[in-house]
Each structure stands twice: as C-alpha cells, then as structure tokens.
C-alpha cells in the first residue's frame, strides 16, 4: 500500500473499538502516526503495545469537561503537530422517546454533539496557524434518513451533520478540509444497544457492513488532492427501503 499519510499525525477519538479502531489501522497502514484517544484504558494500552511507536495513547473520558479541554494540548505535547482529526467517539440511545432515560439523553447529546464541537473548536487554532488540516466526523445514515425508531440518536447526528456543513464553509479559507462519513449499520459493539428487532432486520436484509469499509471511505476522503473536500459520504445500503 502507498504511504499516502507518511509524515502526518492523526488523532482519533473513540479509537479503541469499532470504526475508530478500523480508522486507526487504516491510517497506520498509510504511514501516519496516530494519537489514540479513548476512555477504555485497557483497550488503549493493549492497542498501543500491539502497534508500537506509531500509536500514541491518550486515555480520556471525553464526558469529563476538564479532561476534554486537555485533549488538544496533550495531543500537541505528545505528537508535536496535528494534521488529521477524526471526531468519532459517540454513543447510541435507541427506541421510543418515552423510554429514553433523561440521563442517557444528556450523556449521548453531550458526547455526540457538544464534545465534537468543543474538540473541533480546540483543534482549529493549530490547524489555522499551519494553514492546513483535515477533519472527519463520524455521522450516521440516520442523519440523512431520520429513523423514527431512534429519534434521540438521529437528532444528534442530524445536528452534528449541520455542524460539519456550516463549519466546513468557515474553515476552507484556512486550507482546512472538513467532511462527514455517514454509515448505516456497522458491525461494532454499539449495535448491542440497538433494538433487537431492528438488528434482526438489518441482518436479514444484508445491510450490515464491517468497520474496515468505513475506514476505506475515510482514507479515500483524506487522500484526495488538497483542492478537493469530500463533503459527506453516505453509505446507503443498496436494499435500504426509502
Ligand atoms: P464502538 O462502541 O465500537 O466504539 C466507540 C468507542 O468510543 C469505544 O472505544 C468507547 O470506549 C469510546 N467512547 C465512548 N464514550 C467515550 C467517552 N466518553 N470518552 C472517550 N471515549 C469514549 O462504536 P462504533 O460503532 O465504532 O461507533 C463509533 C462512531 O460511529 C459513533 O459516533 C457512532 O455513532 C457512529 N456510527 C456507528 C454506526 C454503527 O452501526 N456501529 C453507524 C453509524 C455511525
């Protein structure tokens, strides 16, 4: 494989599992050094040990506001620069609105929206000063085709998609590209929180994909010529019933 990201430093939130881990593996294979940010200390340390010096571990619970605010300074302290930021950490609250616990709603909206906005806000001064940088946000198919069986989750991804589309238009003049990847159901730990009948439907309809397929899309977005921003890749299952 060509080392298209050689010399670059990427940071990935939620990089210890699922889509984040697949993104980390793809970026490592393309020659980047990767700062792995996750709250799961055991998984972070195991991945860092397995992958060697190219992975820089950073254990942070992003829902802790103080730790969240320290993320970018610590990335820069440990890695010296940041070329690619993949805002990926997220959680899922599915099912009917009346069944959603208020605390779970707060935590999910905080992680899926507020934390992403604050992380990107903190990353931008460094990228603006360098006149370059790439920001990828993991959104969801649910942002594009709001799914009535997951109104809380779908709303969070709709909001973060709006954030990407508005912020992208502010930052391009600084040489910064920003885009979202919006997959349908991906085989990761997150699916354990899906309503059982929806998971069964997804399995039967053949719409489940591997996390590595999302990572392939992210790498495609990152390796376009600098004059091109891939605004949003929606990974629509071919048998999706619109
Ligand atoms: P996952 O559960 O496999 O991975 C999520 C990672 O985020 C875990 O390593 C977890 O420890 C970490 N994390 C969770 N809360 C955190 C916090 N407070 N601070 C730091 N790290 C935290 O799930 P995934 O499916 O890979 O999800 C990644 C992203 O993909 C999410 O934004 C999710 O909404 C999105 N997404 C997932 C699917 C899917 O079907 N799996 C589809 C579309 C979008």
TrEMBL record:
InterPro entries: NAD(P)-bd_dom_sf, Sc_DH/Rdtase_CS, SDR_fam
A Pfam short name: adh_short
PROSITE patterns recorded: ADH_SHORT
Coiled coil: none
Protein name as it appears in the record: SDR family oxidoreductase
Source species of the chain: Thiothrix litoralis
């Amino acid at each position: 494989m060509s080392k298209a990201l050689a010399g670059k430093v990427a940071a990935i939130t939620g990089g210890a599992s699922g889509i984040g881990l697949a993104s980390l593996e793809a970026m490592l294979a393309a020659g980047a050094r990767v700062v792995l940010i996750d709250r799961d200390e055991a998984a972070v340390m195991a991945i860092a040990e397995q992958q060697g010096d190219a992975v820089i571990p950073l254990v942070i619970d992003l829902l802790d506001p103080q730790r969240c605010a320290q993320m970018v300074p610590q990335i820069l302290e440990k890695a010296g620069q940041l070329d690619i930021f993949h805002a990926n950490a997220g959680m899922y609250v599915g099912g009917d609105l009346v069944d959603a616990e208020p605390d779970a709603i707060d935590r999910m909206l905080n992680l899926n929206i507020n934390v992403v906005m604050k992380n990107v806000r903190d990353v931008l001064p460094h990228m603006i000063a360098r006149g370059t940088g790439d920001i990828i946000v993991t959104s969801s198919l649910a942002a594009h085709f709001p799914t009535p069986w997951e109104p809380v989750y779908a709303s969070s991804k709709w909001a973060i998609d709006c954030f990407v589309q508005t912020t992208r238009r502010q930052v391009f003049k600084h040489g910064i590209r920003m885009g979202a990847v919006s997959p349908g159901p991906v085989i990761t730990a997150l699916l354990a929180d899906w309503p059982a009948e929806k998971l069964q439907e997804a399995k039967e309809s053949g719409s489940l994909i591997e996390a590595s397929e999302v990572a392939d899309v992210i790498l495609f977005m990152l390796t376009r010529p600098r004059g091109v921003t891939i605004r949003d890749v929606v990974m629509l299952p071919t048998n999706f019933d619109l």
